[in-house]
Amino acid sequence: MFYNPLVPTYLFPPSDDINRYAVYEMFNAVRSFKTQNWPYGNMGLGIQNPFWVVNRNQFDTKRERFIASFSARWNITSWLNILGRARMDNAYTDFERKLYASTDGLFSKPAGNWMTQDDKNSSTYLDFLVNVDKRFGDDWHYWPTSEVAISTSVIRVRPSKATLCECQTSSIPLICRLQRAQQRTPTCTHKRNRSTERLKWATATSSLPMPQVV
After folding, report:
1. Among residues 45, 163, 46, which one has the least CA distance to residue 97?
2. Contact 83/146 with Cβ under 8 angstroms?
3. How far apart are CA 115 and CA 155, in angstroms?
């Protein structure tokens, strides 16, 4: 429901014309910059001007994923072989959210909010199978199987939060990244932390059937 321009459009009062708010921001003499043009508030649901949501609540996600697999079989004898398999899956995600000043207070502070997050997911899977297919004479057939599997998963998340704050040299709220590019020191604070979760497990299974008469 949040950040969805269809919700305020659907709940918009029928007595008004929504096209009046296509100009989604107006100059605010008190704050000395343009703010959201929306007289209805959040209606208790985080509602905003739908045109503002589209143009001033911006989300950008980039994702890259690499998957590789390999398998090999080693025939030790005519009745004994070992099969090895490996699979690697790496995913990288860059997320950025920009909420401009005067976005509803449910989502950001009055000066806005800027957040970036860098995620890396890496998983590796290995397994080895020992297969036996042995005949004893013409009447007995024996085919046990044994397997060992090892899997590792690593998840790294690096979030960073800031506000779309006011420059010390200007009252217009700018994105902090732009302020740094212009060698201006923003008045906002940045918070960055890293959390890493590692999951590892190993399993071993075997199937040892009784010899059967052919």
Report:
1. 163
2. no
3. 19
